[in-house]
Amino acid sequence: MASISNIIHSPIHSHRLPSFRLFPNRTFPANSFVLKRRSLASPLSSPLTENPTVSPSVELSHKAIGLLSSRQPLKSRSVVRLPVVKAAAADADGASDGLTSSSESFGARFPALITGFYFFMWYFLNVIFNILNKKVYNYFPYPYFVSVIHLLVGVVYCLVSWAVGLPKRAPIDKDLLLLLTPVSLCHALGHVMSNVSFAAVAVSFTHTIKALEPFFNAAASQFILGHQIPFSLWLSLAPVVLGVSMASLTELSFNWIGFVSAMISNIAFTYRSIYSKKAMTGMDSTNVYAYTSIIALLFCIPPAVMIEGPQLLQHGFKDAIAKVGLHKFLSDLFWIGMFYHLYNQLAANTLERVAPLTHAVGNVLKRVFVIGFSIVVFGNKISTQTGIGTAIAIAGVAIYSLIKANLEEQKRRAAKIPSS
């Protein structure tokens, strides 16, 4: 009893168990062993430890220890903490994923807003380009050389952007090069012919003629791409053709060079839009336009040298510098090239988001802004019939856009209905 009382009054609290069944027919007496409570001072100690004050008369069975440890295996505290660490990491990952998904989902939640921003910047930069471009032609009427400058500034911009990784340059192979070559040829032809028209006639008249672009796009989409264009869309294009015809007959600045070159640019840009859409399947629009500009520049240099080279060397550069000065001449060429590249880059980004016909309609609506601003800035005088014809063409584009939007909405609704 002395040993038992010493155990009970020990500073380390312990408990006596009346019996502990190890086997069905065998029990141990009450004073055979002691189970010690784990001390708070030693958190890493085992639940089963021998009391150093236990008398020799108190024995602890090895079989009891083996049986108890088999029923209650000991676990390290580090294992218990792992789920907490993992949960905290999961919470952190979940928070970061939530932030990422919310930032990435803005464009998905508001696609119309993003597309509208592209259209706005496209219009804004195009208006600035057309006004500054026409001012340059008033003292430097060399559209082939100016076309080269436009593309050259854009190519330098692309090379610098690639060098800094904004955007990262996409690799190009032989197949993609062959696909982009006709696109670049159409881009070069349409660009040069547009500049020839800008230099020959008023900016407003050139854009009035180029309002026929939806007609050419509709024809190319049906007869080249095989897309079926509804009759209602064809009918809505009739006022556009009529309005352009009326405006052309009474245009005060009319000449055949400006008219024919603008029509050629319509056809060239139609093919560019169609084949650019195909070329975007394996590359983003920014890299597509960069490669297109580089290849188009190679197409534009030879005719510029052959057609305008001798005149530029004789008196073209001297006359321009004498009129406005070297600094303004060089700065004007740089800025028209920069605005040209930026507005065309945005046009390519917009084309990536919409169908070719929608892109063409947006291009026509852009001309409304250009025509209005050019008349105000340059004070171009237009006849009554030209004004009426331009208004009819714009109204026809509006009707076309409304009909096409309704048709696309019907297609989206039909696609949402599950097939029975």
From TrEMBL:
Organism encoding this protein: Cucumis sativus (Cucumber)
Keywords: Chloroplast, Membrane, Plastid, Transit peptide, Transmembrane, Transmembrane helix, Transport
Transmembrane parts of this sequence: 110-132, 144-164, 176-193, 231-250, 256-275, 287-305, 388-407
Subcellular location: Plastid, Chloroplast membrane
Family annotation (InterPro entries): EmrE-like, Sugar_P_trans_dom, Tpt_PEP_transl, TPT_transporter
Organism placement in taxonomy: Eukaryota, Viridiplantae, Streptophyta, Embryophyta, Tracheophyta
Domain Sugar phosphate transporter residue range list: 115-401
Primary site of residence: plastid
The protein, known as: Sugar phosphate transporter domain-containing protein
Pfam families for this protein: TPT
Membrane topology reported for the UniProt record: Multi-pass membrane protein
One cellular component (GO) term of this entry: chloroplast membrane
Superkingdom to which the source organism belongs: Eukaryota
Biological process according to GO: transmembrane transport
GO MF terms, alphabetically ordered: antiporter activity; organophosphate ester transmembrane transporter activity; phosphoglycerate transmembrane transporter activity
